[in-house]
User: Fold this.
Amino acid sequence: MMKRGIFFAVIAVFVLAGLFYGSPYFAMQQIRAAIKAQDSAALSTHVDLDLLRGSLDQQLHALFAAPEVAADISPTVIAPLLDTMLMPEGLISLVQLNTRYESPVSKVSDVSGRQRNGQADYALHYTAWDSVVVQRAHSKSHIGELTLTRDGLWRWKLSSVALPKNLLTDT
Assistant:
């Protein structure tokens, strides 16, 4: 009887560890579903606006300080630009940023000869126990790379999106 209790306790520990490890994958699936449905309300439940605002503010200040744009664009436009990016529709566009700069590998066939669906494949990597980075699986750049941070024990929230260095000079 004692061995059975220990067995179930060990199984419970492994199940909880699997759920703990897999929780960011579940959060990313929910984010992808919200984007696919263009559901900004659902997406906003997975966003830490304060952390995202701070990250984007830092990146935009660095972009506006670049010599090629510093003389042409005033940094006073950062606050309104940031507000626009953090609006519900702006969030959806922001999370889909990578698709504008790099088209997904959608026409390549896999080994069986079947066509891949046009949906982007993402790779998720832990950078710390409370932080993961999500990027397009076949991407050669960090554009649109998402950072999710742990919110409590099981929940994850979007805290950063990597902006392209040529965002302001790109036409």
Observations:
- Residues 103-116 have pLDDT under 50 and may be disordered.
- Helices lie at 2-36, 40-44, 49-64, 67-70, 78-85, 88-95, 97-101.
- The first strand starts at residue 122 and ends at 128.
- The two ends are 71 Å apart (CA to CA).
